[in-house]
Structures are given as structure tokens and as C-alpha cells.
Amino acid sequence: MKLSIHGARLIDPASGLDQISDIHIDSGRIAALGAAPAGFDAEQQIAAHGLIAAPGLVDLAVSLREPGYTRKGSIASETRAAAAGGVTSLCCPPLTKPVLDTTAVAELILDRAAAAGHARVFPIGALSKGLDGEQLAELVALRDAGCVAFANGLAPMANSRVLRRALEYAATFDLTVVFHSQDPDLAEGGLAHEGPTASFLGLPGIPETAETVALARNLLLVEQSGVRAHFSQLTSARGVEMIAAAQARGLPVTADVALYQLILTDEALAGFSSLYHVQPPLRSRSDRDALRAAVQSGVVQAIASHHQPHEADAKLAPFGATEPGISSVELLLPLALTLVEDGLLDLPTLLARLTCGPAAALRLPAGQLAAGQNADLVLFDAQAQTLAGERWLSRGGNSPFLGHCLPGAVRYTLLGGRISHQA
């Protein structure tokens, strides 16, 4: 299939490209930017005047819920929702049932993602068997089956000695470990950021030190083992300071932040809406401002949706009895564009945090708009608006942003030169 896209503003943060031009696609790859190659005869044309063409977004944290939790979502439904949000490549965590700690589960996910055909899926394998923190999973076998990194989520390792051995083993084979730094003892029973809002509402708090104590330990063990480490879901000002200091010392450390943490604060809990119940929790306005500054400076090089779809019943109980998480991948690009609208980031920098930044963090073959690369693209209208939820594709309706009018609208998402989503 040969396809030409005419008149779009091309933005490729990886190369610094920003110009109005054409894109020519052949056999799933970008054949040329600008003039068509000699003898190129496009079978399909897209008139993209007034649209922006960028690399397909790369999301490092999208729960697909399959296998095991199909009442919440499926690989087909959630990758389709991702494509609607402009995402062409995504990583799924190992929190499945059974846990993603065997090659059979990895292969099942990859086979079903390929059959759905909406986005490229890169599984993150379990660091320990069953995520129980006791025994190391078969990391090399999982890598060979397609896992790009390894994590234990918020489930703790049995102790620091077991974690040290796991990191040393991962370092031996140049594997990347993803940390979700939260001390389980300090966070136990907590529902909200420990501060004035939680005190006023009578909600048990999770202190900032739940993140920073775990982060300090993890950074020291990363330094000792030499493992490549990615710190996911940072929430605190002190946490990003620690990451910046580690990077300044030359540690192989990257980080991401959940997009909703850049928009919301713990003040959103005032109405006890379970839609704002997330783990780690929404933190203070000063924490949010520090996260924004870290994204601006590049200390945090990736913005992720941390998409967690739930069935309706999971959010209907009183606040403390509901399941945490926000369904957000479908709104990734429009929500992110609010950061441009607020003057926090310019558009190329925002796209860098959504494309080449996350791709480099986990060494994914994605996030570039250049000749020879996979034709994974998003075409969007930055001047249009999206009414969140007007055409909702995810099985999880647990999003506090539904009904909001957001900047920008995804017009086309292309995967391997094929249209996987069209508005």
C-alpha cells in the first residue's frame, strides 16, 4: 500500500524537524519526506492541510486488563482506545491474571495485540514470580518472548537483599527495571496525600516519604548494581529532586509522570468522587508544580497515561472501598495539549515527552518521523476541540475528564502506514 499525506506541518522532536511538507509511505514505512521518490504512485491520498503530523505517541503505562480482567477491558478495546488518543506504541504492566511472569502470557498478549491491529504492544514482564517479591521471574526467557522491561508494580519485594540480587541479575543481561517507588508500610491504609485536604476530609493519608524513602533505597541499589532503571509515576517535588541529582551523578536513570498528576491536585478530592481515587495519590499544588517543572526541564522525559480502566461497579462504593485508577489513554493527546494551552510547554517539547522521550527511556523502536522508520503517525488538528467521551471506546468509563472540552482533535492515527483510527 502506497500512501501520500499532503500539506501537514511535520514535527519530529527527535530530529528537530518542524516544517510544512508531504509524507510518502510505502510497505508500512516512510519512503520519503517532501518530494515523492522517483516512480512513486500513491494508491491513497490524505489532504492534511492545517493538520500536524507527528510520530505516533508512545505510552509507557497502559493496563490492557487481559488476560484475567476482561470485565474491565480487553486488548482489543483498550488498544483501539489508545489509537483514538494518538498512541501507536504502548507498554502494558504485568498486572494480569495470571501474572505476566511466563512466556505463555507474553505470547498471548502479543498475539492478541497483533490480531487487533490498533497499536504496537510492548509487554513489561514481572520482576518476581507472581509479583510476590520472593523469587526472580525468568527474565531472560521473558525478554526473548518480547518483554522490554521488568517491574513489580506497587507490590514490594520481600526485602532489600532480594531486590539487590534482582537488579544485579538484570544488570548482567542489560535489562531495564521499572520502579514504582512507594514504601508499603508508610503507605498502608492511606487513601490521599497526607496534608490539609486529607485532614479536612478525614481520609487516611499517604505521606510524601512513602515515595522518597523507597526512592532513596532504589536509587542507592541502582547505583550499586549498575542496572538501567526507569522510575515510573513520580508524584512529589522531593522525588523529582532526587531523580535530578541521580542523573547529575551519571546514573542510567529515566522517569515518567502520569499525565493526570500534571493537571490535578489533592484538592480534587473535596467532593469524595471516587474518579479521583488513584495510587500513588494526587498530591499538593506545589508537588504538581514541581512535576511540571521537571517535565519542562527534561528531568522527567516521558509523560504517560497510566491508563487503568474499570467496570462501573469498581467506582460505586464509598471512596475508600473503590478501586484506584483513571481511564485516560483515549484522551492522551487532547489532555496533554492543555499543557501547551496553559503555556507550560511549547508543542515540539510536549511531543518530545510523548514520543522520542518515552521511546528512548525503554529503548523502544518508535517515536521518530523519518525516512526508513515505521509509518506510525498521528495527524491532529491543534485548533479543533475534543468533547471528552462523545465517542468513548475504552470499556472503562472511570474518567473525571468526561464531558470536558479539550484542545486539539486526533484526525488520523496510522500504524505501519495503515489507518488504525479515523475521526
UniProtKB/TrEMBL annotation:
Domain called Dihydroorotase catalytic: residue spans: 53-236
Domain of life the protein comes from: Bacteria
Keywords attached to this entry: Pyrimidine biosynthesis, Zinc
GO process annotations (BP): purine nucleobase catabolic process; pyrimidine nucleotide biosynthetic process
Family matches, as SUPFAM superfamilies: Composite domain of metallo-dependent hydrolases, Metallo-dependent hydrolases
Amidohydrolase domain: residues covered: 341-420
Keyword Calcium: no
One Gene Ontology CC term in the entry: cytoplasm
One GO molecular-function entry: dihydroorotase activity
InterPro entries on file: Amidohydro_3, DHOase, DHOase/Allantoinase_Hydrolase, DHOase_cat, Metal-dep_hydrolase_composite, Metal_Hydrolase
NCBIfam families xrefs: PRK07627.1, PRK09357.1-3, pyrC_multi
PANTHER family named among the record's database cross-references: ALLANTOINASE (PTHR43668:SF2)
Designated name of the protein: Dihydroorotase
Organism: Geopseudomonas sagittaria
